[in-house]
């Protein structure tokens, strides 16, 4: 039978293990954040000048982030946690893990005591714990006395009985049986009677107060969020503002800045506010920021109600104009928060307008994401995605003879092994190398679309189509993106080149599907991966989309999530037969080879060779035979017939003299 008891040492070890479970990862995140903030800002090997400047700015913002209240709270929590762990570790050696039965200790004698000493000790113990002596005491004291009396009797039996003594030495148990020690990993003071009321009060507080409050708080907070932990208020703002067909592209930063997540940014001091207002006036004067809020935003006074959203609006415009070097460390920390959250918020903007299927609005959101990724305002040239290309260089490259319209022209000239020096004025040799290296990383893609009825799907993702579909069949549009700048058979991670973005981004492409020259989106698919060729498919019913025996054209827009002026539009056509048309069933290769296989008769007797005198000669061959002269009834005579006459006609007898 197992003995159950509370064990202080087990509780200490349990507390240490649970503390490590939470404290170790928390400490790792703390040290990692501290290292990123304190890391040096010197240029690293293989790093461009542009990337080094950005890393220096992020480093300064990180040092400023160490002065925040949140970082101080995390520091105090880390210190208190590790001090508590040190105290618990110091208590591990002071606890007795297993307490064995000691008969000499129970009787109060030593191992050198005589039998008479043992008898006297036994009499004292039985007299002390006899039931008659504790008759008038409490039930707990009577139970303790009964337990101690049993121990005294067991100890006397062990020390006076040779067999019991040998069994005790072998098992460590007074009755000679090996008992299982079972303990609870809780402190022993929970068993004390004077602590029972305190334990009950703590249990009631936890069960009745703390647990309901925690569950209610979690439930009330969960109602504020939708998918991907985005606030429901954010979706409401997006649906209200993005539903306006007249919303211009330059107002999209305002829509993003009004996200409910940005209302949580801490207040800033007078120096930060002065820097913010100076930037606002400068950008408005240069026509790099709208002078007035959008009509709906102004009517409801959103920016006045949420000053932190107004700050986010100015910070986003400063980022798009690449003027982040003018920000104070506190504003730089706010901008990093805005940009990191924008990663999922722009996706939420796209989800909010998917229901309306407005092609123009969806493409505008994709274009806005490209500008946010490359830190370019809406007036800027796509050539400024290249390092060291500012407004002057981009303007020079797009004017005069040999001008480039956009980044696509520049990449095409580079692929033709031409040296596109136009626009690269006043650049050093090192800066030119940076331009060429960055240009080689930018994508050159083409989109190939095939529409039809799928007959077979291959393991590599490609599809085989039937020769012709019928009305009522499910049509499939196979979209294949080919990365022309990647060697055949080469796999690559394809990280996005975005030196101003504070987080890493992976290259993705979206294919938008619509009828030709129409503005309603029918479907879309996302292409992403590390292969040179990416495939995606869009399925739609032929009935209602295609008219029998008439070609229907569809437009496919390939949109990047990161780069400007690399989007592609292609058109594909499809035609179906009227419903109920019997399509010829394709013959399998094995069926086609059956004509070449020998029959059962040929396998048994061999293949017969045809000859001129064969009985199985074709009647057509007989018709081709020449007609014999003098034949009756139009029957042609053959050489075989002549031979037959020669054999069947008897010879005339020779005359003798």
UniProtKB/TrEMBL annotation:
<dbReference type="InterPro" id="IPR036869">
    <property type="entry name" value="J_dom_sf"/>
</dbReference>
<keyword id="KW-0256">Endoplasmic reticulum</keyword>
<dbReference type="InterPro" id="IPR004179">
    <property type="entry name" value="Sec63-dom"/>
</dbReference>
<dbReference type="InterPro" id="IPR001623">
    <property type="entry name" value="DnaJ_domain"/>
</dbReference>
<dbReference type="InterPro" id="IPR014756">
    <property type="entry name" value="Ig_E-set"/>
</dbReference>
<feature type="compositionally biased region" description="Low complexity">
    <location>
        <begin position="628"/>
        <end position="637"/>
    </location>
</feature>
<keyword id="KW-0812">Transmembrane</keyword>
<protein>
    <submittedName>
        <fullName>DnaJ protein ERDJ2A (Chaperone protein dnaJ 21) (AtDjC21) (AtJ21) (Endoplasmic reticulum dnaJ domain-containing protein 2A) (AtERdj2A) (Translocation protein SEC63 homolog ERDJ2A)</fullName>
    </submittedName>
</protein>
<feature type="domain" description="J">
    <location>
        <begin position="102"/>
        <end position="172"/>
    </location>
</feature>
<feature type="compositionally biased region" description="Basic and acidic residues">
    <location>
        <begin position="645"/>
        <end position="657"/>
    </location>
</feature>
<feature type="compositionally biased region" description="Basic and acidic residues">
    <location>
        <begin position="604"/>
        <end position="617"/>
    </location>
</feature>
<feature type="transmembrane region" description="Helical">
    <location>
        <begin position="198"/>
        <end position="219"/>
    </location>
</feature>
<keyword id="KW-0143">Chaperone</keyword>
<dbReference type="InterPro" id="IPR035892">
    <property type="entry name" value="C2_domain_sf"/>
</dbReference>
<feature type="transmembrane region" description="Helical">
    <location>
        <begin position="12"/>
        <end position="31"/>
    </location>
</feature>
<keyword id="KW-0653">Protein transport</keyword>
<feature type="region of interest" description="Disordered">
    <location>
        <begin position="604"/>
        <end position="657"/>
    </location>
</feature>
<keyword id="KW-0472">Membrane</keyword>
<keyword id="KW-0813">Transport</keyword>
<dbReference type="Pfam" id="PF00226">
    <property type="entry name" value="DnaJ"/>
</dbReference>
<keyword id="KW-1133">Transmembrane helix</keyword>
<dbReference type="Pfam" id="PF02889">
    <property type="entry name" value="Sec63"/>
</dbReference>
